[in-house]
Amino acid sequence: MKPIPLCWRIVLVRPRNPLNIGAAARALANFGLRELVVVKPYGPVWQETRSAVGAEEILKSARAVEKLEEAIGDANWVVGTTTGSRRTLDRHLIPLTDFARWLRRRKARGRAALLFGSEKTGLSNEHLSYCHGLVRIPTAAHCPSMNLGQAVALFCYELARSGALSVPLPAPKVDRSQPANAQSLEHVLERAARVLGHAGYFKPKTRASQLIKLRRFLLDLGLSSNDARVLGGVLAQVEWKIESAGG
Question: Could you tell me if residue 172 is inside a domain?
């Protein structure tokens, strides 16, 4: 089975239990992953996180960031994990057993981020809007949620078993055929939002939900790095024209 050339980063969003962070770090070490990022951890939890046997280096090098965008900015692929039981989703949930097949069909390569939500609320709709795909563990309907550390371990195992792990990537080189990373897409979205704002597209009460839909639309386009650069340039020219005309 041909390996999938992806270098994975595990991202925990607002975890609340230090033991779960330690268990997640241990799971990374068990299956050969190295990069852990924690988004806006509950202060005392991050400070009290214990060393996990065999995963001290992962915890030592783990980054804590304030915003999800900081954790996924350079990722070409962003994948969210969810049971789907807490949210009304209009997207297909990929069973974990089909995850590698889904990646291969899309010829995924480059840097990838796998998101896990907090133990209490999971990933929000806004978090999910950054994701190219949503994956679920096929658990029993009467008890769909798993412990965070266990869920991370299952995903790490499946990535290793299915050949979806790659060696760490070297320093990034310019490859305009690569899928646009999250930071590039967010720049396009911000510029598009300004242009649409000038055109009166947004309504104050629905602006946030409309931006989520626009982000999803950009993801579904499957833009390459070059596509995002060109589209950003087009929108910049439109924005300049509107502003110079006093719009």
Answer: no
